[in-house]
Specification:
Chain lengths: ~110, ~180
């Protein structure tokens, strides 16, 4: 589980930049029955915080709940991003795991 | 938050490996006790300062547990934005399918066309816990997109906070069980 991938894609059109983040994460709600043992439930495991920064400055902070789909794909928009600007995301989940990813605007 | 967790983890390891307790040369306290107390204080200070200097959970590093635990839509909106009902606005563009064939992956896009957007939150009224996600902005535009799970046919509500006021948009999404689009 240690190598959960965080992918970032940016697309600039005019002065608006779309930032899309894809994280390979199970996003278990804690309500699904365990397929091996019907009396138990698969423990909750979902991303809680996802923060975006541009050149080291925080630009957006999101709180996610278990209702966000498996392998979350989260998008935000930015204005006035210049080529070469660094967009970084960091996330952490309810089991204490975390990860980050970085992309350079093209 | 991470540092607190790490501190607790270290603390736990220390407690497990006590065999001999050497005395600390500076304090003359048993070293492990000294470490333990230092760590406990560090944790307390961490928690205290987080509470003191960052009022309002939207700014805080902590995840808003109460808002995500709320079972009713009104309760969840209040837990996120405080008192005050949002007024419906056409400037909040909510893009969701009218019919979702896969209830585990419902694409949602919220675009707030007003200035000074501070936060966007997405709710599904009939989910066990309505709050799906909340985004607060400090530089990014008023836009948020994600994919979400829906338990059953329900209204999807987007609430936008802009210039201290609350605006909302709502759309019904029909969930078809079995995914045949009927």
């Amino acid at each position: 589980m240690a190598d959960i991938q965080t992918k970032i894609r940016t697309k600039t059109q005019g002065d608006m930049t779309d930032v899309l983040v894809l994280i390979d994460h199970p996003m278990e709600t804690g309500q699904r029955p365990d397929p091996k043992d019907k009396d138990k439930k698969v423990p909750a495991h979902y991303i809680q915080k996802l923060n975006f920064s541009l050149n080291g400055k925080e630009i957006a902070s999101t709180d996610l709940g278990p209702a966000v789909s498996k392998d979350p794909l989260i998008g935000i928009k930015l204005k006035g991003v210049k080529p070469g600007d660094k967009i970084k995301v960091t996330w952490s989940d309810n089991q204490g795991q975390s990860g980050n990813g970085e992309a350079t605007a093209g | 938050m991470t540092s607190i967790l790490r501190a607790q983890a270290t603390h736990f390891c220390l407690a497990n490996e006590i065999i001999q307790i050497p005395e600390d040369p500076v304090t003359h306290l048993p070293r492990r006790l000294f470490l333990k107390n230092t760590l406990a204080t560090a944790v307390l200070v961490g928690v205290g300062s987080a509470g003191l200097f960052r009022p309002g959970w939207a700014l805080a590093a902590e995840w808003p547990k109460d808002a995500f635990a709320a079972k009713q839509l009104d309760e969840a909106i209040r837990a996120v934005f405080g008192p005050g009902a949002p007024s419906p606005s056409t400037a909040v563009k909510l893009r969701v399918p009218t019919q979702a064939e896969n209830s585990a992956q419902v694409q949602i896009q919220v675009l707030a066309e007003m200035p000074n957007v501070e936060a966007i939150a997405v709710f599904v009224e009939k989910n066990p816990s309505p709050l799906v996600a909340h985004a607060s902005f400090s530089g990014a535009e008023g836009y948020f997109s994600a994919r979400m799970k829906m338990g059953q046919t329900s209204d999807v509500v987007a609430v936008v906070k802009a210039g201290g006021k609350l605006y909302s948009a709502k759309q019904n999404v029909k969930v078809t069980v079995g995914g045949c689009g009927g």
